[in-house]
Each structure stands twice: as C-alpha cells, then as structure tokens.
C-alpha cells in the first residue's frame, strides 16, 4: 500500500515519511516537560500541543484518552492496545495527507503549525518508554554460528538447544539509554595473559564492541502464570527500535560462566528514539531464516512472514570525523520472530509489562561486510577493520562514534525508517585504589 | 545493644521486637489504598495514619517528608537515604519504649492506637518496593560447590572466576511476588530421556525446586558510569528480605547454555514482605566465609564482618497440612557480602536505582540438613526427603507449601526477624496445542 502524498514537504530520503508515523518523547528549549510526539519529515509533531488545540477533533474515540500524550513516556499510550495505535496512526496519516478532510486541523491553522510542528533539530529526544524489564535474545543465527565457531569450531558452533527455542537472557533495564547518550568504557576483571587463565586483572575494557540489534517494546501485558500464544503475540507488541547492545568482550569471557553475561553488558545499551509501530512495518514482513527443526506446539506460528526486511547499516566515525560504513545487512537474518520470542518468554508464565523491551540478538549476514559485531568482523581479534582515514580497528577506541541506521522500502518519499541509534565512547573512569 | 522494653505487649518469640522495626506496605479491609507500615509484635503501625495524626511531632526533621508514608511502595522513603531511615527507626523505637517522652504520642492516645495499630492478622501485605531491576548472585559457596560437584566433580566444582568476583546474573523483576502469592508450576522444554539429549519435550516442569536466599534492596542510586566503592556500599542499601527463588531444574538444564538461566527462574520469585533495615541488622554482623584469593582493589572491603548471622529455616508443608523442617542454616554461609556484590555490579558503571533487588544466591551449609535447595538435599534426584507424614519428595508436588523463616538474636523479646516467605505450588496451566 502506498500512503498518500503529504502537504508537508518531506524529503524523499526521509525515514519519517507519511507511511511511517513513529512515536517518541520530546522536550524543547523553553518547554522542558517531556511529552509525546510523532516524527514526520524534518519535524516532530508535539502531540500534547496538538491534542490540546483540537487536533484530534476528527477522532472521537480518543477524546477521553488525550492526557496520555502529556505523559513523560509512551507507556500509557502503548497500554491502550494495538487497535488504538492503528487508529491514531491512520488519523495522523490523514491529517498530513494532501487534500484529506482531516488535514484542515493542521494545514490551515498557521498558529497550531507554528506551535505543534517542532523542527526535529530543535527537539530533544528521550527514552520513549519506561522499561520495566529488558530481555536480550540470540536470534541472529549467523552471529550465533560465527561466535560459536570461534570457541568450539563450526561442527559444534550452535548449542543443541539453539534451533529448538529462542535462547535469551535477562538484561539490565536501568542501563538502556536513548541514542546520543555517550557510553563510558567500563572497567572490570579481564584475563590479559592467556597463559594465565586464572589471573584476572582489574583494568579498563580493551575489547569494547557493538552489537547490531532490533528491539521490540511490549504494549499489552499478560498475567503471571498465563502464557501468550504465538499466534496473537504480535498484538502484544507496540513497535520496534534499533538497538546497539555495547559489549565488553574481555569482561564477558572471564565472567560469563556459568550464569551468562553480566557486567560485559550492563554498562550501557543504546536504542533509537522513535518507536516504529507494528502496523507501519506490516508491508515489510518477510520470512525469517529457515529452521529445519520441527518446533514444539507453543512455538509453531500459524503465520509465516514474521521477520522484517529492514535494511541496516553500521557506521564507525573516528574522533577526527572520518566516517566508515563497516556493515550492511538486513533484519531478515533472524531465526526467530518477535512473536516467537514472546511466546517462549511467557510459556512458563513470566509476566510481561507495558514497556518491556525484547532485543533480537546480534544481526549478522554471512559475508564479512554484513556482520553485526566487531568480534565477527575482526575474527576474534585476528584481523583489522580498515577505516577511510587509513586507521585500523579491532575494537572501539575512546572517541569513536557508532551509528546504526535502519529503514524499509525504497527512497521515494515512502520510507519507513528508524532514524539513527548513535553512541560515542568516553574514556573509562579512574581505577579504584 | 539491648533495646528498651516496650509498653506494647510483644511476644518473646516475635520476629518484630522493638529492636527490629521493619518497614512494609499494607492495606486493610475498608481501606484498600496501599501505605507504609512498620511491624511491631502482633501489630502493624500504619505510618500514613500515624503521620496524619501528629505521630511524628517529636521528629521535626521529617515533617516535610511525611507524604512518603502514603505512597503505595517504600521507594520514596528508601530514597531519603540511610541517615533518615535511622532517625525514623530510632524515633519509632522511642515511641514504643516504656516510659520514653515520645511514647505519649501513641500510648496515651487511645483513638490513635485504635486507628493506627492494625492487628497484623488483619493487614494485607504487598510488595514493599517497586523493583526496577532484580539481580541474583551466586554467593553461597557451599551451594555453588555442591551443584558444581554434581556436574563436574569436586575438583572442578567451582568455576575459575568464582573466588575472584561475585558471580551473578540479571533476573526478572516483573516475576518477583510478595510472600503468600501462589506459584504456578511452569511449562517449558525439558529433556525427559537422557539418552536423547537433543530431543526436548514440551511439558510441565517435573523438577520444581526452591532456593533459600537473602536479598537486599537498594536505596541510594548511582549514576551510569560511576561505580559505588565497596567501603561505602552498605549505605546504598535500604534493608534485607528473605527470598525463595523458585527454580525449574529440568527447564534450566536444557536452556541455560550459553546465556544463563531464563524461563527456569522467571515464573516467580517470592520475597518476605517486611524490609529489615541495615541498621537493625548491625548488631548481628559477622564474618563471611574465608576467601583465600587475593582480591582486586574494588572488592577489598576495609571493613570485615559484612555477613549476618541470620538463622534460617525451610519448612515443607504438604496439602494435608503436615509440616516438615527440611533445612536449618545461617546466612553467614556466603562468600561475598552485599557491599561486595554492589561494588562488583557497578564497577563497569551499571546504574542502580532505588528499589533494585540483589539476591544472595542459594544459602547452604555443608551438612545435609543445612542445604538451601532440594537439588542439593536429594543429590540431583538420587535421594529422597522423608516428610513427617511418611511421604517422600525429590522435588515439589502441586499443593506443597514452602515457608522460609529467618531471625537474628535469641528469643528474649529482642529478636530481629524477617517473618515468613511463603508460597504454595499450583498446577501448571494446560499445554498449548
């Protein structure tokens, strides 16, 4: 479905076409209070202001719920459920459509346009949701295979359970930050001398890495003890964001046996600020990677095509401003879909809350220029990434900036994109004496 | 230090002596709104009511903060910091002391006594804190050794990192429930036939276990990127509760490689409702177990004696009401202290928030009647626990109730106890088709 043309000038390569309408939380100079907005072209439409000035007059069903747009997170809006998200998104598409009846509320109201249409360059973006719990899965099978090969060889690269269930672990919700927040290099215990594998050193991380991921926000909760069926699980999801799950590989190697990653991951995880709704992604659904394992009942999805053909890329920018694209891949490189992750997460009765975040795991293709982590690109530290300015990298150095971008569709003014997920590495704090 | 005698009749074996004054959240019939209380003898003092009626008139420093006691969690009170907790606790001890000046505000006010002193049997107890993130450590070295021995033999029972850092993993905050909440047996994937280790079956858990733990609530946050030094970390803690980290051993065995426990743990974790403040536990500090490993700087605590001699016991009650005490141990059986756990958790910059929960890991002694999990008591399913009514158990059956109790001191009307942490097993929901 091609969305209508907008009366608002939207650049053809904008991630925020009228086909998108992603939701986020903004504040502005002079109005520091956080509130909801949607991104459209080079603007953010301030939904609190829009609602207060009759912008939603054409959508009677939402009238008693407009206060949600004045809240500092999207949780209350998300909790209204997918049918409401769909109505609001479609209404806003109509508001921005050339010649539509609803367009009058904004297009013909110069004062409201001035007040509610904030240039995005002037909007400060915040975490879109209050995240109760954050879970990170491992659904990128190429990544799991590549990393498993490094440790156990290709024959034993994937653990026995890998194709039977979406492996995941509980992450640290408090460390999730919005794109643009600097990331401080962590200190921790690492093995510096492989010949002394029992003698850790307390030092700044020397193998600081990225993980290119997608992540889904939960909108509709389930009660403790009541699993979410895979067939309807998509309706429990609000939308997707890009994620960079920064990883301290050397800390991870020493700490992760037997209970999994901990300080290697909990110093920071960045997400993009605009939540792209499930309905906006609908036209870009595609098959996930083939799983030849016969799945057990609770993971058998009656619908195929639950992956998304989101084109992803990762840029590394050095402190001198030199930019190098180090990876280009697609989000279709996942073995498990978000509905399957949610069905598995709740099969034992785990309660999900509005605002919970589910990461996909690192998304890698099979070729060297399609990998989602430096660990894979540099083959466990054996090779180097050549940057445009002649420098090389195995892992990140202080001052490096990593930018993830992702979008669906082609550049005809109909892109459904995520914008960027950006973070710059700050030096580690002094070691404690 | 022996606390004063109270004018209120407090049974000599009460966990809630005047030496304790633990904080919790109650509601009552006719006043469903959640609010703060302290436990004292057979009563809960409703702090909202007490504050509204001038109960805190003798504590001028708290006058502008009294609204915290009307909130539905203790988070705002906890966030005021340890010096305030200490003042309030000492003031309330004074209020309940025979012959003290402050005792008049309650003792001589029949109307307020009637309104604010709620018989505990009539108070409904709720989760004391809103838990942002929950982390579970593995600091019970006897448990780690016992379980490690089952899988790798005694020579390799402990992983290389075990004595160098407090191993832990991120748990699931949304699944933490207050004592008394029934626990539904989880469904999941398990290997039923050990000769077919690649063929999981979707079934109700058959090896449902307990884990006897202590847990600490965080009061004072740190900023992302700013570690908490071990020497002052105790002041970042609000208090302790008992915890039962219910565990599905068969689900765990299949799922936990390589990222750690997930659905084996996230169906439910029970905590006791009354938070015993760090200051109340001060007289019961003792040395943790000896660690012969030379610790790195950030884990070297200038103070010894950070463990607590809390006497713990676990009862298993069958659905016919027969009670069997299956374990008696002490919380001193930990290798790592809560300040060390907090220092390690934040060494890489992980931000802690008020209300975050840190579990100790399973607390076991070395003898068979001092173990903190059925897995250890039954030696990985090889032996049985004999119950008082002639039944036997390897793992829990539906209808079983597990009660954890813990207290410091001797029974002379000066006990500092936690009350109980109770949960009853409900049958698993039907399998999905």
UniProtKB/TrEMBL annotation, chains A, B:
GO molecular function: fumarylacetoacetase activity; metal ion binding
Any single biological process term in GO: L-tyrosine catabolic process
Requisite cofactors: Mg(2+); Ca(2+)
Signal peptide: none
EC number: 3.7.1.2
Domain Fumarylacetoacetase-like C-terminal: 145-416
Name used for this protein in its record: Fumarylacetoacetase
Active site (UniProt): 143
Binding site for substrate: 138, 152, 252, 256, 362
Annotated Pfam families: FAA_hydrolase (PF01557), FAA_hydrolase_N (PF09298)
Family: Belongs to the FAH family.
Keyword RNA-binding: no
Entry keywords, A to Z: Calcium, Hydrolase, Magnesium, Metal-binding, Phenylalanine catabolism, Tyrosine catabolism
Top-rank EC class of the record's enzyme: hydrolase
SUPFAM superfamilies tied to this protein: FAH (SSF56529), Fumarylacetoacetate hydrolase, FAH, N-terminal domain (SSF63433)
Residues that, per the record, bind Mg(2+): 245, 265, 269
Residues that coordinate or bind Ca(2+): 136, 211, 213, 245
Pathway involvement of the protein, from the record: Amino-acid degradation; L-phenylalanine degradation; acetoacetate and fumarate from L-phenylalanine: step 6/6
Boundaries of every Fumarylacetoacetase N-terminal domain copy: 19-128
InterPro entries: Fumarylacetoacetase, Fumarylacetoacetase-like_C, Fumarylacetoacetase_C_sf, Fumarylacetoacetase_N, Fumarylacetoacetase_N_sf
Reaction equation(s) it catalyzes: 4-fumarylacetoacetate + H2O = acetoacetate + fumarate + H(+)
């Amino acid at each position: 479905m091609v969305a209508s043309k907008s009366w608002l000038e939207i650049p053809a390569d904008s991630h925020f076409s009228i086909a998108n309408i992603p939701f986020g939380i903004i504040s502005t100079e002079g109005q520091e209070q956080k509130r909801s907005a949607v991104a459209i072209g080079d603007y953010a439409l301030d939904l609190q202001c829009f609602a207060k000035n009759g912008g939603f007059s054409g959508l009677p069903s939402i009238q008693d719920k407009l206060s949600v747009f004045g809240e500092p997170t999207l949780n209350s809006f998300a909790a209204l459920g997918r049918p409401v998200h769909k109505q609001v998104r479609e209404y806003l598409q109509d508001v921005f459509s050339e010649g539509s009846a609803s367009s009058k509320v904004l297009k013909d109201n110069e004062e409201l346009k001035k007040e509610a249409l904030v240039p995005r360059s002037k909007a400060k973006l915040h975490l879109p949701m209050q995240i109760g719990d954050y879970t990170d899965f491992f659904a990128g099978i190429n990544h799991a295979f590549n990393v498993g090969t490094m440790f156990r060889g290709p024959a034993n690269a994937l653990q026995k359970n890998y194709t039977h269930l979406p492996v995941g672990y509980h992450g640290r919700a408090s460390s999730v930050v919005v794109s643009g927040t600097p990331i401080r290099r962590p200190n921790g215990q690492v093995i510096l001398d492989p010949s002394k594998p029992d003698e850790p050193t307390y030092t700044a991380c020397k193998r600081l890495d990225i993980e290119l991921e997608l992540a889904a926000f939960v909108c509709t909760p389930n009660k403790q003890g009541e699993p979410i069926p895979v067939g309807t699980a998509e309706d429990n999801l609000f939308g997707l964001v890009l994620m960079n799950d920064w990883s301290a590989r050397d800390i991870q190697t020493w700490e992760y046996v037997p209970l999994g990653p901990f300080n290697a991951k909990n110093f920071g995880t960045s997400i993009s600020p605009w939540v792209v709704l499930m309905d906006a992604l609908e036209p870009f659904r595609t098959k996930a990677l083939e799983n030849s394992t016969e799945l057990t009942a609770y993971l058998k999805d009656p619908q195929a095509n639950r992956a998304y053909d989101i084109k992803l890329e990762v840029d590394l920018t050095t402190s001198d401003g030199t930019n190098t694209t180090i990876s280009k891949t697609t989000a279709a490189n996942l073995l498990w879909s978000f509905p399957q992750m949610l069905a598995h997460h709740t099969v034992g009765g785990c309660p999900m809350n509005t605002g919970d975040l589910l990461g996909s795991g690192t998304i890698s293709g099979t070729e060297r220029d399609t990998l989602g982590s430096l660990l894979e690109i540099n083959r466990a530290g054996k090779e180097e990434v050549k940057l445009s300015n002649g420098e090389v990298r195995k892992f990140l150095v202080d001052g490096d900036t990593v930018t993830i971008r992702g979008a669906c569709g082609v550049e005809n003014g109909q892109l459904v994109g995520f914008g960027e997920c950006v973070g710059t590495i700050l030096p580690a704090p002094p070691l404690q004496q």
